[in-house]
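Section 3.1: Structural characterization of target chains.
Under the original work plan, the team committed to producing a structural model for every single-chain target entering the pipeline before any wet-lab resources were allocated. The record below documents one such target. The sequence was received from the expression subgroup and is listed exactly as submitted; it comprises 420 residues.
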Amino acid sequence: MAIERDILTLTQSEVELQTLHETVYRDLFSHVGVALWVEDASLLKEEIDKIRSRGVYNFRTYLTRNPAELLRFLSLIRVVDVNQKAIDLLQASTKREVVKGIRSFFTNESFNQIREEILFYIEGGNSYEYESQKQSLNSIVTTSSIKTVIPDDCKDSWALWYVTETDVTENKKLQLLLNQHQHTFEEFTSFRNKLLSAISHDLRNQFGNLIGFSDILVERFSELDDAKKLDYSRLIHQITVQTHELLNNLLNWAKMRDNNLNLTYTTFSFTDLLIECERQTMYLLKVNNITVQVSNDEEVYLNADYNIVSFVLRNILGNAIKFSKNNSTIDIIISKAYGKVVFAIKDYGLGMSEDEIASIYNVNIPQRIVTNEPESAAKGAGLGLILCRDFIKRHGGSIKIESQQNVGTTFTVYIPEEPR
């Protein structure tokens, strides 16, 4: 009797311990911080073994040749249980909705990942992790990090698969945003470094020219006639103006990047503005024997920021002069169309490559500012073109560039007559 009583007590203790284990398991299963479900894939394992017994060993090839088999394989996996976190993740109301409709949550991407998961287990693996898209009962697509594990005592039967799922949609969005910002930062850093390098090169050349011409004046002043003195003085003045313009370009570019550039709108005659820009470039036109021909059918008035439009016109005209051949012509055509003032500046000079044109439209620095050009092609044009593009865009306009190397370039600028 004592032995029977001890056996009965032991049996009751085992039952109580088993009940305790089940309670602890159920509590952990229900309240764990991730979506969790239990699957029984024993029928799938039996089917895999049957197919293998027929001499099929390469299941990747088998599924490629028989794609419908994947759906049949999935139908042999039974969902045993899911926790509340899984129900919430899939936006279901009850556990039954998840268990009965688990396949409806898969997307095409999900099926591809599950195919790889099954192949992994067929090849002897026991833990598989991947990211995949899922859609909830409300058809909301999310991205999940999924991990499946087959316990050691179920490796042969696949009677238990533990599956955990974590919604990483927001993390993916943040990562994508971070990557985009990183790309933008790297692009801007590269742009800035090229820009500073190019401007340093330009300034060194300009100051070198200033020192050279001023040395001639200082050392040979008494030997030079008045005409030569005037020529050297004009050259020094022109180089000084160009250097000042380059520094202004850099300052304006910085303001544009920081969104600190405010536009001041006034109504003015475009013809008068053009005359003023020609006057400022008269010396370069004379030195290179370049003629400007203007064509306009009527007086054109524009309501815009005078200084900004002057900057754009002066830069493009100056650029045309710099890259024109000596003894050539620059054509300027002014017109109005669809509420916009249109002016085209056409030179017959060096022309531009497709890459140089594309770089002006892009945020990257134009090729001319970072490559070695012929001596007649003055440096510093690149930054000015960047600013022209951005300033015109700020006015609600656009720039069109047409060019052929060794033939010439045409810049056509469209600016709204009135602010938008």
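The two ends are 103 Å apart (CA to CA).
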